[in-house]
Amino acid sequence: MKNIPEYFGKLVFDDRVMKSMLSAKVYASLKRTIDEDAPLDISIANAVADAMKEWATKNGATHYTHWFQPLTGVTAEKHDSFISPSPDGGVIMEFSGKELIKGEPDASSFPSGGLRATFEARGYTAWDPTSYAFIKGNTLCIPTAFCSYGGEALDKKTPLLRSMEALNRQALRILKLFGHDDVKYVRCEVGPEQEYFLIDRKLYDQRRDLIFTGRTLFGAMPPKGQEMDDHYFGAIKPRVAEYMEDLNEELWKLGIYAKTEHNEVAPAQHELAPIYSTTNIATDHNQLTMEIMQKVAAKHGLVCLLHEKPFAGVNGSGKHNNWSISTDTGINLLKPGDTPYENAQFLLFLCAVIKAVDDYQDLLRLAVATAGNDHRLGANEAPPAIISMFLGDELDAVLDAIENDRPYAGSEKKTLTLGVDVLPDFARDTTDRNRTSPFAFTGNKFEFRSVGSSNSIACANIMLNAAVAESLRIYADRLEAAEDFEATLNGMIKKTIKDHRRIIFNGNGYDESWVREAEARGLCNYRTTPDCMPHLLDDKNVEMLTRHGIYSRAELESRCEIMLENYCKTVKIEANAMVDMARKQILPAVEKYAASVAEAAASKRAVVPTLTCGYESKLVSKLSLLIDQIAEKTDVLEVAIMNLKDESIKNIIDESCAIRDTVLCAMSELRAVADEAETLTAEEFWPFPTYGDLLFGVR
Ligand code: ADP
Ligand code: MG
Prior knowledge:
single chain, alpha+beta, Ubiquitin-like (UB roll), Four Helix Bundle (Hemerythrin (Met), subunit A), 3 domains, 7-stranded mixed beta sheet, binds adenosine-5'-diphosphate, binds magnesium ion
């Protein structure tokens, strides 16, 4: 078999390549830029560009591209070849530092939410040296940030990098107070677990809904769904195993640490988890992973569905965002330590996260809001739309003891200055997992489970980093000014626990009673994208995000606009696809079947005139009624779509609310009658593959 260490990262211009191809001086200078954000000199950029070109062309690349993440949610690239004419009529391969550092793609077709007038089409891409360049196909891809002529971010990477810097700044202030003068920087790290569905390409090709929208808009439940739970961690089918093997190989070549893979709860659902890395790199890698997953699937006659809810009535797909913060000296700041001193520091960082999640529930919720994810959050399966935290019994008891000035009963160790006994030495997962919590502590990291499977993880991490940076800023302000450090620290920890207790919930997040309790606790419950997105512009949020330099107000306004626009466009495409399928496929099919049943009855009666043909009569009546209902509901949906053009709808918020209240309802009413018709229609008449075919079609 192939030797993994030999080919791992072979398509990446990584540290090993840099070390071997750059002079010691250039390498050291680039490292300083990567690790410590030191500015980069153009002579260094020239040397790096030259080495990149040498390496890339040797590995088969003919083109290069500035690879970026516009607000469409997918990655974008524009390819330029390395060739440059030489005086003798031939070409030489060229790539300069200038071309490496900056690109100028025509930005006019990327969403800018009003940030850029149409006449100002220019946008800039700027090299992000902290994420390695790599080769995809025949192209050297250079990870870049993307901004407008005026410097506003038009992408997800820029604010992500800003949020990481904000967190770094504030965490360093705290660490200084705890005497960690040796720490140079603090990074947040993420391991995103990616869920997906695999279905057969031939079946996919027959479903217009999947082709146009990535999810099924019709489909009755098959006799068997996921009720047996026999798929979860079940044996992987040979065809899927081959896919996973191929996928791993492609990802490893790109230096992506694909680590675990298993079947998920729903039939045809699987998961891939990488080993965690710095958030920026994890984000780039996750974008690449999603792309490669789809590419490799095509090679295997499969389609990889990344939609949050490809099938109604079957678990949707998410992306568990495992998040932690650690220092360059190797300390995980969310790891409860063994000594009281470490414990106090851990407790402070823990409190910073608790406060952040409570104060900025709305930001965390809206960071994961899309039309697709709305079907998942708030449905009876994945984390609910209400943001709460799970800490586990042990940690909860510690916080309880601190809040109430009681000794902590669970430990026999020394007493901490906070008045409680030292935390027990946490083994990973000392308490049972709570799989229903949107935000769970899992031993040395938090797992944010609300992110949608097709979402970039950037937005969730931007908000998370920002909110935690803000808690730390407030703590650092107080502690730096404190006369009695310990008393202030203890007081702050206690106050945080008291003030933010409401966000901690260890019960069942799927339970109806939780909705009522959360409401009583004053927690937000934004079920849909139009409910939460406008809160991006709430004063408290704008203030916090601009204070840390993560977004300007103009950037926030544009993002709100783009996200809502995305929501509206997505649902409108779905609604139109439904009308199309209902009129052109479903109605004719049911009509044909009803006619054939009627014909069967008529031909039987032709032989035996006294026959009542009760079965046929009843069926034809039922089908006729359903035909009328499908036709009627299709008209209603069409009118709902038309009404979006009404004058009373003045802006994108109005439109998104109208879509939520009218179009989506009309869609589900149409679906209900069409699905009923499916259950009554003979298989050979039904115009496209059923749920049973799709979910159990890959063997
Ligand atoms: P589970 O399904 O039980 O949540 P997995 O092993 O599938 O666990 O995924 C755990 C994810 O968390 C992996 O991507 C792993 O690399 C990541 N992870 C582990 N430790 C940390 C950490 N300290 N910070 C961030 N992510 C982490
Ligand atoms: Mg998980």
